[in-house]
């Protein structure tokens, strides 16, 4: 599983650590459906392999993840015109299931958050166990500026930082840097340069060695149990809400404006 060829991610194992790199730098590692499927395959494997004790997640090319791939949205719109199924629902639900799966894997997930940490990438950051934000990181939930809700990531953001701040960030689409991400509780550490990133990562991995892998897996499961039942129940409702919004007037106008690099109608 870990040695097979992937097109959207890269894997490298060093002893008990798996380095997982999102590998679509030409689009700031925006999450295509193929990337979602590849990540899901890896997470499924990890559920049964506790010899891997930690996953270090990072994006190639200086950005963590710029959210969902707008091309998948265009493909879904084309598919909607041809069939009776709801491709927007399917696409959004698949991503929500991936976030839930990543949240639940027994390994310690350590993220290094560079550059764009937007939309779905913001959601991934919110289900990590340890997050290191760099001096280049730019966080935002920009979905509402595109006329759509941050449907699948919303419950995870609320759990990470609380309702009050989550509301502000989602409803304003606000951007902020790595230092503020620590203040908000999204990230745990701020690194002013790559040397400090590596120092903090090394310290985290050294500390991890002191913790038993089975005990960590059980502890993580116990800590998540109460919150995750609610998250699972929200996935279906969130996918329905997302599909309705993206097919509505705002969703169409916002995504088209993004593709055309023009301001959305409500931003003029």
Descriptive notes:
With 268 residues, this protein is of the alpha/beta class. The chain contains ten helices and nine strands. It has a single domain (9-193, 210-267), classed as Alpha-Beta Complex (2-enoyl-CoA Hydratase, Chain A, domain 1), CATH 3.90.226.10.
CATH class: Alpha Beta
What is the fold named in CATH at topology level? Answer: 2-enoyl-CoA Hydratase, Chain A, domain 1
How is the biggest beta sheet arranged? 6 strands, mixed
**What is the strand content?**
5-15%
Please state the second-level CATH architecture: Alpha-Beta Complex
Strand order of the largest sheet: 1-2-3-4-6-9
Say which CATH homologous superfamily is assigned: 2-enoyl-CoA Hydratase, Chain A, domain 1
Structural class from helices and strands? alpha/beta
Mean pLDDT: 91
Query: Tell me, what's the shape?
Result: globular
- How many domains would you count in the coordinates? 1
What topology emerges from the helices and strands here?
Layout: E1 9-14, E2 17-22, H1 33-46, E3 54-59, H2 70-82, H3 87-104, E4 108-113, E5 116-118, H4 120-125, E6 130-134, E7 138-140, H5 154-161, H6 163-172, E8 176-177, H7 178-184, E9 189-191, H8 194-208, H9 213-246, H10 249-259
Parallel strand pairs: 2-3, 3-4, 4-6, 5-7, 6-9
Antiparallel strand pairs: 1-2, 7-8
């Amino acid at each position: 599983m870990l040695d097979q060829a992937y097109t959207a991610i890269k894997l490298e194992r060093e002893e008990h650590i798996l380095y997982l790199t999102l590998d679509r730098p030409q689009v700031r590692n925006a999450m295509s459906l193929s990337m979602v499927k590849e990540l899901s395959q890896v997470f499924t494997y990890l559920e049964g392999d506790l010899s891997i004790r930690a996953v270090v997640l990072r994006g190639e090319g200086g950005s963590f993840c710029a959210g969902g791939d707008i091309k998948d949205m265009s493909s879904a719109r084309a598919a909607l015109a041809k069939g009776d199924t709801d491709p927007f629902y399917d696409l959004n639900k698949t991503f929500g299931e991936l976030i839930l799966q990543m949240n639940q894997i027994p390994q310690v997930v350590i993220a290094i958050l560079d550059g764009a940490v937007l939309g779905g990438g913001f959601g991934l950051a919110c289900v990590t166990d340890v997050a290191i934000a760099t001096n280049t990181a730019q966080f935002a939930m920009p979905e509402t500026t595109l006329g759509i809700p941050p449907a699948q990531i919303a419950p995870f953001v609320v759990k990470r930082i609380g309702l009050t701040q989550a509301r502000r960030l989602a409803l304003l689409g606000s951007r902020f840097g790595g230092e503020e991400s620590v203040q908000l509780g999204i990230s745990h550490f701020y690194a002013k340069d790559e040397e400090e990133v590596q120092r903090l990562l090394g310290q985290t991995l050294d500390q991890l060695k002191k913790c038993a892998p089975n005990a960590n897996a059980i502890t993580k499961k116990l800590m998540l149990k109460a919150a995750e039942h609610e998250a699972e129940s929200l996935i279906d409702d969130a996918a329905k809400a997302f599909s309705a919004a993206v097919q509505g007037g705002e969703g169409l106008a916002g995504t088209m404006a993004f593709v055309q690099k023009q301001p959305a109608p409500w931003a003029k």
